[in-house]
Every structure is written in C-alpha cells, then in structure tokens.
Amino acid sequence: MKAVIPVAGEGTRLRPHTHTVPKPLLRVAGKPILGHILDDVVALGIKEVVLVVGYRGENIVDYVRANYDLELSFVEQTERLGLGHAISLSKEFVGEEPVLILLGDTIFKGDLKKMVASGGNSIGVKPVPDPERFGIAEIEGSRIVSLVEKPEKPKSDLAVAGIYAITESGALYGALDSIISSGRRTKGEFQLTDALNMMIEKGSELKCFEVEGWYDCGKPEALLATNRALLELACPLVEIPGSILIDPVCIGENVVIESSVLGPFVSVAENSIIKRSIIRNSILGEGAVVEDGLLDSSLVGDNAVVKGKFKRLNVGDSSEIDFT
C-alpha cells in the first residue's frame, strides 16, 4: 500500500502564519501537523508516500526529506482545482496498488491498522451534531450507498473524516479521470466524493470505518482545540525549576523558561525563551520570545518577539510586539 497526502493548499484562514509557513508545517502539540500524519503512516508500515505539493512546496519537501526515511514522490498541483484533482495527480505514482489517502491538514486518532487490514475500500467517518457542514456518508449497514457534500437536509450524521483506504485504485483513478475530462465540478471544484460515488454506481463496495479522533487544523481556533486534544492524549511530565507548569504542557529542546507559569494546554517549540510570563492554551513557534506577557488562546509564530501584558494574540513569524 502507498500513501497519498495532498498538501497544496494556501491555508488562508491561518494567516498571518501561512504567509511564511505552509499550513501542514504549522506546529500543534510539539510537532508540525504533517509530522503527526507521517508518524501514523510510518506506524502502519507504509514505506512509499506521494505528497501533492503546491504553496511553499519546497518547505514541505525539505521537512519530509530531513525527518523521514521513506520512499518519497512529489507532484505539484499548480492550479487549486479541488481535492479530486489533487489526488488524480498521484495516479502515475500509485498505479494499481492499494492507496491510503490522508488529508494534509487533519490529524486522526484511532485503529488505522484495523481499517487498512480490513481489506476492500474503506472511508473514515465520524458522527457530528451538524452534518450539513460536512461531506456526509449515507449508509446501509456498514456499506456506503452515497456521499453528499454539505447536504441541506442530511440523511445521516456521519461526516467524511478525510481518510480513505482504497484497494481498487484503478477504479478510483478511472473515476477521477472521467469527472475531470467531462468537466464535472461540484461547488466549483473536482471533488473526490464525486469520484467515489461513481465507483459505487459502477458496482464498487465502499465501507465506512468510524475514527475515534478527527482533529481539524484549518483555522486558529481549530488549531488550538487540536493542540488541547493531543496534549491530553500523550504529554510527558516536565519540571522547570523556578517556574510552574500545569499539565498538559509540551516543551521543545533548548527552551529557556524563567519565573513563569505555563499551562494547561501549552506547546512551546525549540529554542524559545519565556520570562516572567503566564501562558495558557497557546502555541509558541520555534525561537519565539515572550517576556512579561499574559497569553491566553494565542498563536505566536517562529522567531516572533512579544513583550508586555495582554490577553490574546495571533502574531506571525519574525514579528515584534512590545506592550511595555
């Protein structure tokens, strides 16, 4: 089995951070979003990974090559024509082999090994209270009979969670070729769900697999919520003499913390400096500096410098803010 991960989006809802860093490399719970995804791929024993890159793709290429011993292929999506289009670009690298498709801005928790080992075509789903906001799987038993994008009157509460294990790769890529060549778009884009529906219409069986955790990272509040959830799942206890850490807190390497209170739900990347500050429910990027600060529900970019007293910030890389 090969893995395909589309990571071409610009991440406009996460600006100013994505002005300098592609969305999949934004940090959450101690590592980039893409790092969490690739760790799951490695745990599944998958060795070959295709990444569909676009915006700041060179940053993603450098990160993956530097941190993972995988057989890597990269293909560029020069036009953002939808998820179906992005996946279609991986056809020559996957061929007829089974494929695991994982969205590059979503982190999953659950028994993915069971999903992959079950055989056949499986789609990850998660019950949601507001299904009209999502792509929805309509089912009979465990078999999917239809996939609908953001239905006005949903017949199911099972949201498509963005993880797809497909054994019939030839049928999938054939369906993608068909909708693209015919110009068939939904909401202005070539949708993966349209191709999957075509597979169902032509006799393929698609099963649903309920995932335990589905963590979106598409906007600041979602990124912070994901940070909280992942820190609760696994975060080693840390002690810093002269400071108070309220678990869960994730501290990177070579971080200086003096006379501060951190937590709960704080992630601090490597080489950061925190002095005389109180920080909770926040993510600090690599090399960030916070002095005399009161931070809550904040995102601080790489190498950003923040000084003074305030409650909430969303400051990008290499910025400097002084409230003193």
- CATH topology description of the largest domain: Spore Coat Polysaccharide Biosynthesis Protein SpsA, Chain A
**CATH fourth-tier homologous superfamily of the largest domain:** Spore Coat Polysaccharide Biosynthesis Protein SpsA, Chain A
In whole angstroms, the N-to-C terminal distance is 56 Å
| Strand residues, percent | 25-35%
Report on this model:
It is elongated, with a radius of gyration of 21 Å. It folds into 2 domains: 218 residues, Alpha-Beta Complex (Spore Coat Polysaccharide Biosynthesis Protein SpsA, Chain A); 88 residues, Hexapeptide repeat proteins (UDP N-Acetylglucosamine Acyltransferase, domain 1). Helix 6 crosses helix 7. The model has no long low-confidence stretch (mean pLDDT 88). It has 8 helices and 27 strands. The chain is of the alpha/beta class. The protein has a 7-stranded mixed sheet with strand order 5-4-1-6-11-8-12. Strands 15-18-21-24-26 form a 5-stranded parallel sheet, with helices on one face. Strand 9 and strand 10 form a beta hairpin.
